[in-house]
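Help! Submission page says 'invalid entity' but I think these are all valid:
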Amino acid sequence: MIQAGETLSLIYRAVEELNEQLPPKDRLAAAAETPLLGDAGTLDSVQLVSLIVTTEELLLEVHGRHLSVADDRAFSRASSPFLTIGSFADYIDELLGEEDLG
Amino acid sequence: MAKALGIITGARKGVGRYLAEHYLERGFAIAGCSRGETDLEAPGYHHRSLDVADEPQVKEFFRELRLRYDELAFLINNAGVASMNHVLLTPVPTVRRIFETNVMGSFLFSREAGKWMSRREGGRIVNVTTAATRWKLEGEAAYASSKAAVESLTQILSRELAPMGVTVNAVAPPLLRTDLTRSVPAEKLDELLRRQAIPRFGEMSDVANAIDFFLDPESRLVTGQVLYLGGV
């Protein structure tokens, strides 16, 4: 079981990894309200893929959880789970919760 | 220092077995897989019996490997099945089995390898395809079209994984003496050989040589290519 707040910490680690590849002006702040996609977002599609994959990888490495975050459901929602770091974390917690129940 | 790891699918026999031994000799650790068990026992060789199109099995295979190895240097998607038959006589389960192994297997292994490689120093993916995609052979509709899909997959993967430092290429052997050609009549094989610029059977070493080129660190700008051997 992943405790409250751990998912956010994991995404912050993924952000750190991504920031190493970004020019200083494009680096993301490690904060729940940091935008990822949408008008306020600064990531291009490849960078978003990198962030998602790195987060999936950290879930596996740190918690032994194999999760496919970016499935069809994620992209078909009225409100994208990738709008902000916080919404991304909430979506992962939701998927993990479903797995734990299921 | 731990050896660099390479994964080879369909490593129990034929080209896959040859490649496993070839890269073990070159100092790599090799993780092979196939549906059946293997009799290959060598230091640095690990084998897992699995279905390459079974997502949970493939994920578990990668999870185990990642506990043992930090990096994945290369993946060779070699596992493949064929069936020769007239389209009008080909059952859907046969077509499904061919596409599951050849296309879905390559897709799944490439996806899992790409995730791993993208977080390290990049890597190399090589898919094995066939001259049959160019020859448009009667009787090979399912096999050749599945390999055409593998070629498209190769080219699109090369673009999607390029930003992560991963190159993706394919090698298309000419006629080889393998299980896949054993049931083809001799006169048909002669006819096919005559279509090649160099009309002889390919050897396992010819395939390995092409893959050596793709895996060479100097080949970092070589990606999205399908290399047809024998002048097909």
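Support: the input was valid. A stray whitespace character was the problem, and the output above is from the cleaned input. Strands of chain B lie at 5-9, 29-34, 45-49, 72-77, 123-128, 166-172, 226-228.
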